[in-house]
Design brief:
The chain has about 200 residues and is an all-alpha fold. The chain folds into two domains: about 110 residues, no CATH class; about 80 residues, Arc Repressor Mutant, subunit A (Orthogonal Bundle). About 75% of the residues lie in helices and about 0% in strands. The chain contains eight helices and no strands. Helix 2 runs parallel beside helix 4. The longest helix is centred in the middle third of the chain and has 35 residues. The radius of gyration is 18 Å and the shape is globular. About 10% of the residues have low confidence.
Length: about 200
């Protein structure tokens, strides 16, 4: 089990293959995603935006399993861009967590003595459990919950409306579905953390 965001060369290579099966195109998509994340952190007022974008990318890398290469051989440039746009909500989902963590840490550092440490291991355990529980969800439920929570502030309402339209359902039905998925995730995460705590005792 990994309890940090360190990425091995093998994991990074697997991530690039997930972005695109062609190395040059994968590099372009990597730069595109990183710029999108930096722009989002700048908009949120999070500094340093570049470092936070790298944290998000590393956490996404650690959720990608073997056997998940990009299925985009022979597609056009416009189709390739559409493909990476479909993957962006996955990055935004983790960016929201990193944003909340960033502001929480800033708030703590302004109140606590410099000698007092934060609960970094607790945060790592929560992220690890979140990643593991997301993997356990059926693909359609995982994609739905990630997409639902990918946007905040002004983008959220519009995105939920578009998502409901895509699924041909109502906003209320969409909320009910995501509430149920969130309940499944919460129970899974609680059990995962409890298991880790037992092993650490």
């Amino acid at each position: 089990m990994k309890t940090n965001d360190t990425v091995t060369p093998e994991e990074f290579s697997r991530f690039l293959r997930w972005l695109d099966s062609l190395p040059e195109a994968a590099g372009e998509k990597y730069n595109y995603v990183r710029k999108k994340l930096i722009d989002r952190f700048v908009f949120w007022g999070c500094k340093p935006a570049e470092d936070l974008a790298d944290v998000v990318i590393n956490r996404v890398i650690l959720t990608i399993e073997d056997g998940e290469p990009a299925q985009n051989d022979g597609i056009s440039d416009s189709e390739s861009r559409t493909d990476i746009e479909r993957k962006l909500p996955y990055f935004y989902f983790f960016a929201n967590y990193v944003r909340l963590e960033h502001f929480r840490d800033l708030k703590k550092s302004s109140k606590l003595p410099k000698t007092e440490t934060d609960n970094s291991m607790d945060k790592e355990s929560r992220y690890y459990c979140l990643e593991q529980c997301l993997k356990k969800l059926p693909t359609d439920l995982r994609e739905l919950i990630i997409s639902y929570y990918s946007y905040t502030e002004n983008y959220k309402v519009l995105h939920h409306q578009e998502l409901a339209g895509t699924l041909e359902t109502t906003i209320n039905s969409l909320r009910i579905r995501t509430h149920r998925i969130r309940g499944i995730l919460r129970k899974c995460i609680e059990e995962c953390i409890e298991t880790q705590t037992m092993f650490e005792m």
